[in-house]
């Protein structure tokens, strides 16, 4: 992971974001809503702009920040996004509507592990972006990987979890933290062990795994 000094340096190099994007970032900060870090979202958007996916599945809408950023970066893409939390789901819908993107960003409320049959009707997806409950990453991947198009790519955020995956788990304070880090570490290892996929982890933001078919 990059140290704070380097992260601040890179963030200061980024072009100023539109006011509505800054407002969403400030709302997330004030209301403790997890959204992608500034350097992480910029890398994801660059990768997506190179890939040019036409259909994207996002697991974990939160307030719609990343879905909106993706839609603005990829004006021809259609995005399907799932959110479990009712309050965040409603806030995401408000943000998406305010941006006039409701025709390209389709929100679904519920547990992503229970909505696969509905999501299947919109498959295949050129890109799948996993950014929800970290303890369920393995299940999300297994459930939605079959819905990936032939040249599709799966992007997974927070795979380094503030560097804790590289530490001795005995250093973590709670049992919940130790369990979460263990599951996340197992998920990371499983990505690199897939025979028909290749994966790399980019240590920006909170760590982004990029997985594509060989």
UniProtKB/TrEMBL annotation:
Mg(2+) binds at residues 131, 157-158. Keywords: Magnesium, Metal-binding, Methyltransferase, S-adenosyl-L-methionine, Transferase, tRNA processing. The keyword Magnesium applies. It catalyses: 5-hydroxyuridine(34) in tRNA + S-adenosyl-L-methionine = 5-methoxyuridine(34) in tRNA + S-adenosyl-L-homocysteine + H(+). It holds the Pfam family Methyltransf_3. InterPro entries: Cation-dep_OMT, SAM-dependent_MTases_sf, SAM_O-MeTrfase, TrmR_methyltr. Its EC number is 2.1.1.-. S-adenosyl-L-methionine binds at residues 36, 66, 83, 111-112, 131. The keyword Aminoacyl-tRNA synthetase does not apply. It is an enzyme of class 2 (transferase). Homodimer. HAMAP family: TrmR_methyltr. Belongs to the class I-like SAM-binding methyltransferase superfamily. Cation-dependent O-methyltransferase family. Catalyzes the methylation of 5-hydroxyuridine (ho5U) to form 5-methoxyuridine (mo5U) at position 34 in tRNAs. This is tRNA 5-hydroxyuridine methyltransferase. It comes from Metabacillus niabensis.
